Amino acid sequence: MQWETVIGLEVHAQLSTESKIFSGASTAFGAAPNAEACAVDLALPGVLPVLNRGAVERAIRFGLAVGAKINSPSIFARKNYFYPDLPKGYQISQYELPVVEGGHIQLQIVQDGKEQEKTVRLVRAHLEEDAGKSLHEDFHGMSGIDLNRAGTPLLEIVSEPDMRSSAEAVAYAKTLHTLVRWIGICDGNMQEGSFRCDANVSVRLRGSDKLGTRCEIKNLNSFRFLEKAIDYEARRQIEILEDGGTIQQQTRLFDPEKGETRAMRSKEDAQDYRYFPDPDLLPLEISGNWIEEVKKGLPELPQQMRTRLEHDYGLSMYDALLLTGDRDISEYYEAVVGKLPSDPKLCANWVMGEVSAYLNNEGKPFDVCPLSPAQLAQLLLRIKDGTISGKIAKDVFRQMWAQAGAASISWKNREGVDEALGDRIIDSQGLRQISDSSALENLVYEVLAANPKSVEEFKAGKEKAFNALVGQVMKAARGKANPAQVNEILRKKLTE
Amino acid sequence: MSLSLDDVKRVANLARLEISEDEARKALIQLSGIFDLIEQMQAVDTSAITPMSHAQDVMQRLRTDAVTEIDQRELFQSVAPQVEAGLYLVPKVIE
Amino acid sequence: MLNASLKQLSAMLAARKISSVELTSEFLKRSRALNPEYNAFITLDERTSLAQAQAADILIASGRGQPLTGIPIAQKDIFCTKGWLTTCGSKMLSNFISPYDAHVIGRFNAVAAVNIGKTNMDEFAMGSSNETSFYGPVKNPWDTAAVPGGSSGGSACAVAARMAPAATGTDTGGSIRQPAALCGISGLKPTYGLVSRYGMIAFASSLDQGGPMAKSAEDLALMLNVMAGFDARDSTSLERQPEDYTRDLEKPLDGLCIGLPKEYFVKEIDEDVARAVEAAIGQYRKLGAETVEVSLPNTKLSVPVYYVLAPAEASSNLSRFDGVRYGYRAPDYVDLNDMYRKTRAQGFGSEVKRRILIGTYVLSHGYYDAYYIQAQKLRRLMAQDFAEAFKQCDVIMGPTSPTVAFDLGERSSAPVQMYLSDAYTIAVNLAGLPAMSIPVGFGHKNRPVGLHIIGNYFAEAQMLNVAHQYQLESDWHTRMPKE
Known about the structure:
The structure holds three protein chains of three kinds. Chain A folds into three domains: 3-290, no CATH class; 300-428, no CATH class; 437-495, Orthogonal Bundle (Arc Repressor Mutant, subunit A), CATH 1.10.10.410.
């Protein structure tokens, strides 16, 4: 039988605000336990929530970026359940009328060397508060509760069950991950839990249009776990169905050690969350003016930029995808092209090649690249105008990198950047190509005189001998000759 | 509609209130009386009316995103039933 | 001095005829003496109160005193008060020393009023008789066989027995007005949103409102001047220009139009109550007011609607009491859920548990629309009824309670009976309107009767004027129970 996996994702993106969604406590990661849990976060008797404008603004930004409807009014509701990391005994979330409704995400999937496009529809994205953390190390048989994370703003982004494989689910999650960082609403740090996925997985016979019973796999905090968990879960469900069993709707947890999913014990009770509008919070109004303002502050989106890079710069989809994988990269690249508009492809090769490799090696983002886009563009210009070869340029680049030293501030904020750095290295070490043809001709004569055997072989029709002679000239020029020019002169002299 | 003993137990469990068989029976009698009173609501046709959640027809005021709180853990934990190493202790949590 | 108005006390303090320490000591002495009998206070803390009085005296001496500076005020134990035991009348919070101040407490501190103690109340403000308090019932100082009303019964008793010149209360369905009526004092529930709920332990968030309780309307106005005001920490707090609630006290009542809802003057009202209320209305006609019959057709639905909405909100508001971060935790349990279930079963009293069960049920799957949504729709109908009535009149009057204070124990085993006695006060909370109760005489067994005055939104100054003009012509509010 042919089975099809159906996947919908719920992504919790932690919004990059300074303070919590309903209190003035800090959201900074890594504080001492409960040091960032204020009276409101602890749900002391009598405390009340007040909504953070920054959280709402980020939700609007997301809604605009995915072409969704921004609801106004939007309503906050209480989701009631008991858990020690949930201090109020309810989570403030949204049920009816979420801030963001609808929208879609466009995916580019490169699979088996083939490029595919796919659209995943979004159901909604709503604002809610995060819970605290239960630490299971043994405190005399008890658990410890840290409420620093309680009240951190989250945007829960819910997709339609539009994905059909773990690869599509991962591509969707990655695209979303890029987008939320791109528009500056989430830092995307998966280790710190800033971007977490829950996957709803079901299987059905191919061709069926009815959805199977789904299981929800909670808290997948890496793309690899997401992929493995979905693959395991789909296999598990298919095995049950092929053995004539039925799937029980369940909440499951992925165990990365075993690579398996298991039912969560704390979710065994039938849940009845008793959602109702939070009487402590009034309807949230989002004016057209506010939406316009947010729209103005929105950068060009990765999808639009990708299309532009392909059309205007003639880049391949693959290059365009890489350059728009991160706003830092794209900004750096755009700045380089800005200085050298005549060759976007050369710029792309260098940004994705040398620059990327050096930064990777040092584990640094593009933002703090020691070489500014202007410095790189100046170097690339020297390749273009024939001053140096690409090979020499790589050597110059290495030296520029070493001389610039480690940077701590963004290239955008640097002052007094030495744009002539590359030129000075070229000049001080005499790396300019020998473009004076009489000097080259002299070199060629010397090489011909010293290699009579090769000359004879060439004249006997061996083209290989010609290449050896070119090599000898280049060697004599210590790489500074323009290979095309050497070719030309050599051929002329040999056929004279 | 009438309330059953199972309803009382189900609701007590949802609300995390331990309830004995005897207490549940007593609660059933009292709650039934209250629900008889509440049932009067059903006689009114309200299909054209919007629910009213708040006394005032005003919109949510928003707070500027700024950190205004300081660490008061020691003070807050001075009233806690059980703490250790800055953590609130509870019976083992099983996920 | 025990019977002096706030204005008189303030003048005495300003003129240095008496110090705040002397004044506070006097009321503390009386409170200590009477509390074993009346049980009006859960906490009295002489040292702290006197320290506050000393600070007030310094302020007054420096000429920076304000109208309530140095005056002892009794605080309902629902207001979180930093460093004070704050119990909300519950075993659940019987060990809770609040680490912070409610907004209302902060306002009194800002004018250097003296906190004379925390008053007894129905547990989590759920009750109309003060019998649900973990700390035992409060007695009605007019007749110790009678209840003082609730939930702000301790505050009402303290003011009536002159243990404090004034007190704070909170009102979710009548919890200021009904005990004020039953104890023969004045009490005001402001428009929803006027007094911040921050630090006021929540019962039903969309209905709760703090307000003053005192001997007279004039005292209430001075108290409200301190209590009312915008607070950014409460999303439902209204941003309005500060008002002086004493500004209209002296206005004559000529041309005032009083609406008398036909649904309020029915046979369910005890005859003694009806007589006193009608006499008071007669007095208003003499003062130049006219009366008009109005209709609030959905009045009889107010109790059912309230007993869906208030418990629903309460069931959720009280979930935070779980034995984890503060308050009571059961001594023995086998696991986490058992800890929750035992802590909450032992920490809450029976009335609170009853309301949590009702609230949980009406919100639960399959019942939400039939109960919660239906109740919210009827709530709107009730608010519309008032809006219609206020097109025809300036204020609405009727009895605060259909009976005088009932006997202790008389209704404690009959919750429905108890709930029905709040019919007049409840509708006001559902609409979010301001309302007050003032003493207008005595009924059965010489127990006090209260007149209910309902105003339009933000009409507090007008209502206080209406009440004050009556009190200029009557002396019910100056009468003291015998000890």
